[in-house]
Amino acid sequence: MNEPLSVWTLIGEATVLVQLVMLLLAIASLVSWVMIFQRVVVFNRARRELLAFEDEFWSGGDLGQLYRDGSARAEQEAIYGVESIFRAGFKEFSRLRQQGGIDSDAVMDGAERAMRVALAREEERLENHLPFLANVGSV
Hints:
Blueprint: H1 7-13, H2 16-57, H3 63-76, H4 82-98, H5 104-126, H6 130-138
Helix pairs in contact: 3-4, 4-5
């Protein structure tokens, strides 16, 4: 009379619509875990790259050489993180400085603008898949 309930019995006795909803939720859960692990890898890589770049940047070396080294690496692999923001700002700074007749405030504004654009790209890259994860989490 008092049979213990099992998950498999409940799933088997559910209607087709309920089974489809449960299947959809299971698939969404699996996809979410894949995305979570992928985000962990991306964030860990970004942290390592941040620490490595900060060590180079604050070592007191020539910023021009740091930019050239990053440019050489960028030809071989994609550069992300703080280094890409630095490279965007330094590139714009150098370009504006080489043009004659531009005051220093305009040069700095241009470099800051380039860095804001690069920062927005980095934020977008790091926040990839987060809206999906938020939606699945709320369900």
